[in-house]
C-alpha cells in the first residue's frame, strides 16, 4: 500500500483549487430574477493538521469525560517532516509521527522531567497520546481515536 504525505497532498489540492477558482468581478447591473434563485452554500474550510497549535479539549472514554482546565497547557503541533511538538502541562518535548490514510502513529514521546502541580493531567494526556490509532479533522476540531475505544478532542489555540 502506498503511503501519502498528507500535508503535501493538502498543499497540492489547495493549489489546484486556487488555480481553478475564477476571478469574480462586480456586475454592472443586478442579474435578472428568474424565480428559481439558488444560493451557493459556503464551502467548509478544513483546518490543516500542520501549522495549527491543537489544544486538548477533552478525552471521552468508557463513558467518562476528562477535560483540562487550561487546554493551552496541553498542546500538539504537527511540524514538517513528521515531527510533533508536545506540551504536557509543565513539560515540553516531541516525537516522530507517521500518517497513512486515517491512521496516525506516534513514536515514544521524549519530554522534559519537570514536576508538574498535583492537579496536572499530564499523565492522562500522555497516556492518551500513546494509545492513538486514528485521526480525523473537521472544520473545528482534531479528533484522535484511541485503540481501546474513546477519543481525544483538540481545538486550535493561540500559542
Give me the secondary-structure topology:
Elements: H1 6-19, E1 53-61, E2 64-66, E3 74-79, E4 83-88, E5 91-100, E6 103-106, E7 110-111, H2 122-130, E8 132-137, E9 142-146, E10 151-156
Antiparallel strand pairs: 1-2, 1-3, 1-10, 3-4, 4-5, 5-6, 5-7, 8-9, 9-10
- CATH architecture of the domain at 64-156, please? Beta Barrel
| Spatial gap, N to C terminus | 36 Å
Helix content: 10-25%
Unreliable spans = 8-44
Report on the biggest sheet: 10 strands, antiparallel
Structural class: alpha+beta
Mean pLDDT: 80
Radius of gyration: 20 Å
Write down the secondary-structure element order: HEEEEEEEHEEE
Q: Please state roughly what percent of the residues sit in beta strands, choosing from under 5%, 5-15%, 15-25%, 25-35%, 35-45% or over 45%.
A: 35-45%
What is the number of helical segments per DSSP (H or I, 4+ residues)?
Answer: 2
In the CATH hierarchy, what is the class of the domain at 64-156? Mainly Beta
Q: Shape from CA axes?
A: globular
Strand segment count: 10
CATH T-level topology of the domain at 64-156? Lipocalin
Would you mind describing this structure in some detail?
This protein is an alpha+beta fold and 159 residues long. The protein contains two helices and ten strands, in the order H-E-E-E-E-E-E-E-H-E-E-E. Strands 1, 2, 3, 4, 5, 6, 7, 8, 9 and 10 form a ten-stranded antiparallel β-sheet that branches. The chain is globular, with a radius of gyration of 20 Å. Residues 8-44 have low confidence and may be disordered.
List keywords for this structure.
alpha+beta, Lipocalin
Short characterization:
By secondary structure, the protein is of the alpha+beta class.
Amino acid at each position: 500500500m502506498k503511503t501519502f504525505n498528507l500535508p503535501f497532498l493538502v498543499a497540492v489540492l489547495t493549489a489546484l483549487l486556487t488555480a481553478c477558482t475564477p476571478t469574480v468581478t462586480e456586475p454592472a447591473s443586478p442579474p435578472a430574477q428568474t424565480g428559481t434563485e439558488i444560493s451557493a452554500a459556503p464551502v467548509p474550510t478544513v483546518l490543516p493538521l500542520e501549522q495549527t497549535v491543537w489544544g486538548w479539549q477533552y478525552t471521552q472514554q468508557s463513558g467518562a469525560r476528562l477535560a483540562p482546565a487550561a487546554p493551552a497547557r496541553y498542546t500538539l503541533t504537527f511540524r514538517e517532516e513528521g515531527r510533533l511538538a508536545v506540551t504536557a502541562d509543565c513539560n515540553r518535548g516531541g516525537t516522530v509521527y507517521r500518517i497513512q490514510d486515517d491512521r496516525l502513529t506516534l513514536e515514544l514521546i521524549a519530554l522534559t522531567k519537570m514536576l508538574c502541580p498535583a492537579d496536572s493531567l499530564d499523565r492522562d494526556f500522555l497516556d492518551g497520546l500513546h494509545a492513538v490509532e486514528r485521526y480525523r479533522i473537521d472544520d473545528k476540531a482534531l479528533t484522535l481515536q484511541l485503540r481501546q475505544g474513546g477519543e481525544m478532542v483538540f481545538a486550535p489555540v493561540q500559542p
